[in-house]
Amino acid sequence: MACEGTLLGMGNPLLDISAVVDDGFLTKYDIKLNNAILAEDKHLPMYDEMSEKYTVDYIAGGATQNSIRVAQWMLQKPGATSYIGCIGKDKYGEEMKKNAKHAGVNVHYYEDEAAPTGTCAVCVVGGERSLVANLSAANCYKVDHLKKPENWALVEKAKYYYIAGFFLTVSPESILLVAEHAAAKNKIFSTNLSAPFICEFFKDVQEKVLAYADFVFGNETEARTFSKVHGWETENVEEIAIRISQWPKASGAHKRITVITQGADPVVVAEDGKVTLFPVTLLPKEKLVDTNGAGDAFVGGFLSQLVQEKPIADCVKAGTYAANVIIQRSGCTYPEKPEFN
Length: 341
Description:
The chain is of the alpha/beta class and about 350 residues long. The chain contains 13 helices and 14 strands.
């Protein structure tokens, strides 16, 4: 069984404002389905418009926090996971704390005095989602918070780490601190390509972090963007996965394994220069509610078995199970107990 505090996540805690919208709304705010972007000024009115025009759900989100919550749910052992990030001192922040506590995750939030808790508009059309994140307080995370003894104790205690690429825009210094600790202590560090814009505009710092990654997650669009940015001249996801797994490593203790999801197509796992494909359970279209959090849930399920030292095939199976559960519900939410064997 996973012991207490074994898995630590660090990222941008955001309150998801989720609604089924229409094509006109997407066009108005110039957003595309199956994409994730940071809000610009032109996007700021959309948050209020969503709550006025559509039926909105408020769900604790943020990519890494989603994955950690799902791993916690799969493990069913309170406090097996911990999470660090920055929220505001407001009602959304309180909501987030309540939600995390209920999920059994040990959260150590840095609470910013000035900025409001970050939000993410989740615009759903035909079951597909588009994410527009207004980081606000999430953007204010400081490495000094991580260095405080009570927070660094979480790093010391954990044996596995997961920090999605989105945190590269906020505190690369904090990521590298954790990554270097993992390498020095022979622990497992994992990350995610997260979004095309991360691969495009945060290339240099992404490369620095990648050197420490024992597991790299991503989806097919992100993998192809990564390939394009690095001039690899291939769109073949299997080939890209192998090349990412062979990226130079800062520590030689563990080999790197790349795990790329492709929606309804098989999961690509690359290690030791070869690829294994794992089919996913196909869901009838009428059962699909929304794909928000599917990738995060996959990672959470995967990590829940990894921390128990299960074989990769079991990790992938748990990942596809968790993703399958999440896409049948609104947002990254789940029933009380998992039914995974």
